[in-house]
Amino acid sequence: MGVDFLKIIEAFKIKISPTEDQKELAQKRLDICSTCEFRRGEIDSNLTSCGKCGCFIYGKIFTNNYDECPEGKWSEIDKPYFKNKETKTLI
Questions:
Q1: Closest CA to 57 of 80, 82, 31, 75
Q2: 84 band by pLDDT with thresholds 50, 70 and 90
Q3: Which of 11, 52, 55, 91 could link 63 by a cystine bridge, Cβ 3.0 to 4.6 Å?
Q4: Alpha helices in the chain (DSSP H)
């Protein structure tokens, strides 16, 4: 898995000045990460990382991408924050 620097930069830009919804979603994601068996380090440290993808948790929780957790643990809490558009076809 390669490092996507654009995703990282975007997440940290959001972290600097998040909206209320972004803060709320980040906290919900952090709550999941705090009990995750793949977490490396104490949850109150800015250096805490994910053992699956290697990302620093306090940056990753601000990603603007749906369910970026490599274990799919964010999918349910992300749903209300991401308006998935249904694709309609003629067939």
A1: 31
A2: low
A3: 11
A4: 5-16, 20-34, 57-60, 75-78
